[in-house]
Each structure stands twice: as C-alpha cells, then as structure tokens.
Amino acid sequence: MVSLTAAGQAQIKDSPLMNEDLRPTAADERTWTGYNIASLWIGMAVCIPTYTLASGLIAAGMNWWQAVMTIILGNLIVLIPLILNAHAGTRYGIPYPVYARLWFGAKGAHIPAMLRAIVAAGWFGIQTWIGGSALDVLMTSMFHGWASVPAHLAIAFLAFWALNVWIGYKGPEAIKFMEAWGAPILIVLGLGLLFWAWSAAGGFGPMLSAPSKFKTWSEFWPVFFPSLTAMIAFWSTLALNIPDFTRYVRSQKAQAWGQILGLPTTMGLYAFIGVAVTSATVVIFGKAIWDPVELMAKFPPLVVFIGTLGIVLATITTNIAANVVAPARSFENLSPRKITWGMGVIITGIIGIAMMPWYLLANFANYIFGWLGTYSAFLGPLDGIALADYWLVRNRLIDMKELYRPGGRYDYEGGFNTRAIVALGVGIVVALIGKFVPTFKFLFDNAWAVGLLVTVVIYWALMQKHQTILSYQDFADITEGDTTVGAAGRAVSGD
Predict the structure, then answer these.
(1) pLDDT by residue (tens digit) across 351-368?
(2) Where are the domains of the chain?
(3) Under 8 Å between Cβ of 156 and 196
(4) DSSP classification of residue 25
(5) Which residues make Cβ contacts (< 8 Å) with residue 175, sequence separation at least 6?
C-alpha cells in the first residue's frame, strides 16, 4: 500500500483540487479490518428493499428459489468489479472522486462523480421514505391520536430524513462505528423474524411450494435477463465508489474477504427471509404481506417498538453508507475549497426528496425495470472505464500526487479526457438502444453488462500508449521504498 511522505503531503496541501476529506489516507488511518468491511456490507444489505426484492421477481412469474438464486447470482457478478475497483482505494488511499480524475481528468471527473451522486441521492430518498413510513406505523400504534394529525406520514418522513442527515454529517468514522455494532443486531433480528414465521405458520407456508409460472425456458429467459440486470444494478453504484471505504482498509486481503463474506451471503439470506416470512403470512393472516412495515403493524405495541427500531437501524445503516458518502464526496469535489462534507450531505438530502421516492416505490415495474434497469445503463459503462483504466491501461501504476495538481499529468485536454467521454457515450447509447428499439431489446435487458463490455474495449483501444501512462521504470523512480511516495513522486509499489 502507498502513502505520501510528509514532503509529498506538503506539496499538495494548498492545491485547489484538495481538501481534508479528499486527501489520500495516511498509513495510520487505515484501520478497517475485514470485519469492518463485512459489517459494512451486512449493514447496507439488510434493508427493506432487500427484504422485498424477491417479491417483484415472484410477481413477474418466478418461484421462490428462482428469485433468490437470481438475486445471489447478480450479487456474485457485481462482486467482481467491487473487489477490482476497491483495490485502488486500498492501495492508494484515494476516494472515488479523486480516483475518477485518473480516467476523466480533473474537470471531467465531475461526470462520473455526479452520475453516481444522482443515483445515490435517489436511493437516499427511497430509504428515507421507507424509514419514515416505519416511524409513522410506530407512532400510530403507540399514540391513538397520531393518525388524525394532518400530514402525519410527511412529518414522520421529514423527521427520519433529518436523523439521516445528522448522522451522515458526523462523517466516515461514525459510519464505521454504527455498522460494526449494527451488523450483529440486524442478523439476530432477521433470524428472529424467520423463526417466528416458521413457528407461527407451522412451516413456511404455500409460497415455497408454489411452482414457477414459466412452463418453458423460452418463457423464463426474457424475464430472467432484465431481472438479473436489475439485481446487478442494485449494488453497481457501490462498485464505482467502493474506494470511498476501502481507502481506510489495512490490506487487499481484508477488503476482498470482507466483501465476499458480507455481500452475496447477506443478500441471499435476507431475500430468502423476505420470501419465507411472506409465505408464512398467507397461512397466518390469510394474505401475502410483503411490506415488513405493514406486517409489523399487526403485532402488539412492544413488538412494534422493537420491530421499528430494527427497521430504522437497517435503513440508517444502509442509507448513510451506501447513499450519503458517494454524493457528499462528489459535491465536495465540485469545489473542494468551498463545499464541505456537511454541505454535501445536506445537498444529497434535498435531491433525495426532489426525486419523489414515493413514486419509485409505487409498484415493482417502476422499481425493478424502471429505476434499477435504467440507471444500470449509465453505471455499467462507468464500471467498464474504471476497470479498463486501472487494470488494463495502467497496470495499477498511478502518479498519486499528480491527481491533485491542476495542469498535471492527468489534466488531459483542459481537464477532460475526451477518450473516456467518447467511450462512456458509446456504452450508454448501445445499452439504451434496446429501450427504444424492440428488435434490440436484449441490449437493454442486459444493459449493465453490455455497457461495461463495450466501454472496456473502446476505452482500452483509445488509451493505447497514452502519455499519461507510467512505465515501471517511471514508477520505480518516483517511489521511496515500497510504501511511500516522495516529494517528487507519484505512484506506488507493494500491495
């Protein structure tokens, strides 16, 4: 892993492209272990959208195991770019907006940063709406007059919004603490809910024995592929800005195993819990109840109180880590000397409300095929550029100090790498063709993968022998030892 020497830090401290939140992390700041990364993923993956994710797939015709396996497969696929993009954060200690300067240039980096930020802000609104609804149910069950208060749901939503913004304002160390303590609590609550459903229904109910509605594979594939794309898109956002977290990790082994153990296992488990518990509600209550907030309202006040705390904790741990860090950093990067982390958090919260989360959650078509499917066409190409640049074009050799120098090695043409912009544009257009031209529907059904593959090839071809690429000799010349970069140095060797 690499850190700047004191002399190197002194040279970039007054750069207009740097502030305290965007600087490379020092060696003594890299304290996160594999457990911290695994708990981060458990905290993010345990949320109501995960619980209800299989419901849209079952409504589209899948049986329970087809739905759960589609979710697990999607997460195993997105795990690949997650681990590969995390490498740069762990090795160099740089956050996502700074990492994006490597591919797009100092000014061009605002393009991928803001695309990621807008999606995250939309998710922030969705999660806040869910948490606010849970608070509204709690207040209704505990205070009989609450339901008569005008706009009581809106009040609960805004109160929960303010709580999320306040916690996000505290910064990454508060997130680390919250996730580390929240993860085991959320696992216990989820398993407790599963045990209740099994015991109360005398088994998991009829849904687990219901057959798929698809009689042939030719009927199954047209639903499977866009559904798989949506499952990949669920965390394709984090596949871009995962360096925001792994810049604090001690080693590549810790970040990789933390993600492997934390993401696909948790997503698969909680998707199954959602299906199994909902199946049991058919036996217990006579109808399928997919929404855990609606289910919670049927219990006594004490259980409602505990359940609400669980939903609130699950929503906050997901929302702050997954949907605040990336946009806040991106808004900071617009003007590092003027926009602070706290201002970025507040901007994120305002945009989250403006994106009308209540509409996105109105039905599974809006959510899975509209929201998740469409933004995957934009994020897949960005993932492709990030992977091609770091692993294929540069062989993991970065001139770290130059990422903070205006007019430096990575300034390209006036701050913009036009090759990255061309590759991004082509990748998005190819993926979106299928949304508007029925003959090419398969392109949009697989938008994330299509966009990623197209941009990997185009970007790699356009960047061959580019002057910004470091040779191994250049890299060795600017590296002091195997872990630091000197005042004249730029890149790294070692981990």
Answers:
(1) 888 877 776 666 555 555
(2) 3-374
(3) no
(4) P
(5) 40, 320, 321, 325
Angle at Cα 19 formed by Cα 18 and Cα 25, nearest 5°? 90
- For Cα atoms 261, 267, 268, give the angle at the middle one, nearest 5 degrees: 95
Q: How far apart are CA 369 and CA 118, in angstroms?
A: 18
51: left (phi over 0), alpha (psi -120 to 50) or beta: alpha
Beta-bridged to residue 480, according to DSSP, are: 484
pLDDT at 491 (0 to 100): 41
- Token pair 């049927």: residue: 298
Which residue intervals of 46-109 are DSSP H helices? 48-59, 64-92, 96-104
Give percent of the chain above pLDDT 90: 38
pLDDT in tens, 395-449: 999 988 899 988 889 999 999 999 999 999 999 999 999 888 989 989 988 999 9
- Is the separation of the CB atoms in 78 and 262 below 8 Å? no
* Under-50 pLDDT residues of the chain: 481-482, 486-494
Could you tell me the sign of the dihedral formed by the alpha carbons of 116, 313, 126, 57, in that order?
Answer: positive
According to DSSP, the residues that pair with 413 across neighbouring strands are: 416
Angle at 109 between CA 414 and CA 99, to 5 degrees: 120
Question: So what's the architecture of 3-374 in CATH?
Answer: Orthogonal Bundle (1.10)
Closest CA to 227 of 65, 57, 76: 57
Pairing of strands 484-485, 3-4: parallel
Tens digit of each residue's pLDDT (9 = 90 or more) over 325-350: 878 888 888 888 888 888 988 999 89
Q: What is the pLDDT of residue 186?
A: 77
Give the residues across from 249 on adjacent strands.
Answer: 32
What's the mean pLDDT when you consider all of the chain? 85
* Rounded Cα–Cα distance for residues 403 and 85 (Å): 17
Q: Report the alpha-carbon distance of residue 111 to residue 116 in Å, rounded.
A: 9
Q: Return the closest-CA partner of residue 486 out of 494, 478, 476.
A: 478
Is there a contact between 234 and 74 (Cβ–Cβ < 8 Å)?
Answer: yes
162: number of Cβ within 10 Å:
12
The span from the CA of 495 to the CA of 490, in Å, is 16
* pTM of the complete model: 0.85
